[in-house]
Amino acid sequence: MRAEDVEALRKDMLAVIAASAFALRDTIGKSAFDERVMTAMGKVPRHEFVPIEFQPYAYANIPLPIGFEKTISQPFVVALMTDLLDIKADDSVLEIGTGLGYQAAILAQLARKVYSVEIIEELGQKAKQRLRQQGCSNVELKIANGYHGWSEHAPFDKVIVTAAPDLIPPPLIHQLKAGGKMVIPAGLPNRQQLMLAEKLANGRMTMKEILIVRFAQLEGTGSGL
């Protein structure tokens, strides 16, 4: 893709994200996303994080297949989930579900350190390569079942989950710092809600439903697995 084409498509993507946020202001509780989030969305080349055959559609506000029956979320949802976390520059962030690394690359612009877990080895290896090419040196990735989090580096200031369990996994709650935030889609496949969970100083969790969403199921949490 030519640089000038990418630039124009990226500007269009940001305009669509901004318009969508304004249109859904009553649902998401604000009319615009944080400037740092929008800057990160504008900086990371989304076309480098999708399979080559889908690069022409990389900046459309739609999810795209990345193989293994997984998708890269639509840009608006990536921006929304990132914004809800309210990431600070010195935060340590845990991501469950690396995919090809796009969300991790966005987080890398905002946080001190990103720990990302991907269950499918081939996706994880491709994500490592893409993140390295983009200079995301503050992202550490491992191949594992994200249901269990990454206890060695816990507790985390923020946790983001890009696949949906029926219920929030207890290990992820345990690995979240007091005062920390988690953004996670949860619920049965046809009734998922994007949730903002916050851990209070006393360890209790508060939950807020943000938006109806549709994500792939978090591996290892379904019936019979």
Automatic annotation (TrEMBL):
GO process terms (BP): methylation; protein repair
Query: What GO molecular-function term can you cite, just one?
Result: protein-L-isoaspartate (D-aspartate) O-methyltransferase activity
**Which compartments does it reside in?**
Cytoplasm
Keyword terms: Cytoplasm, Methyltransferase, S-adenosyl-L-methionine, Transferase
Against InterPro entries, the record matches this protein to:
PCMT, SAM-dependent_MTases_sf
What are its GO cellular component terms?
cytoplasm
Do the record's keywords include Mitochondrion?
no
Q: Give the annotated active site.
A: 73
Tell me where on the tree of life, at the top rank, the source sits: Bacteria
Identify the Pfam families for this entry.
PCMT
Main location (coarse class): cytoplasm
Recorded catalytic activity of this chain's protein: [protein]-L-isoaspartate + S-adenosyl-L-methionine = [protein]-L-isoaspartate alpha-methyl ester + S-adenosyl-L-homocysteine
Enzyme Commission identifier(s): 2.1.1.77
Q: What does this protein do?
A: Catalyzes the methyl esterification of L-isoaspartyl residues in peptides and proteins that result from spontaneous decomposition of normal L-aspartyl and L-asparaginyl residues. It plays a role in the repair and/or degradation of damaged proteins.
Q: Which family does it belong to?
A: Belongs to the methyltransferase superfamily. L-isoaspartyl/D-aspartyl protein methyltransferase family.
Its name, as the record gives it, is Protein-L-isoaspartate O-methyltransferase
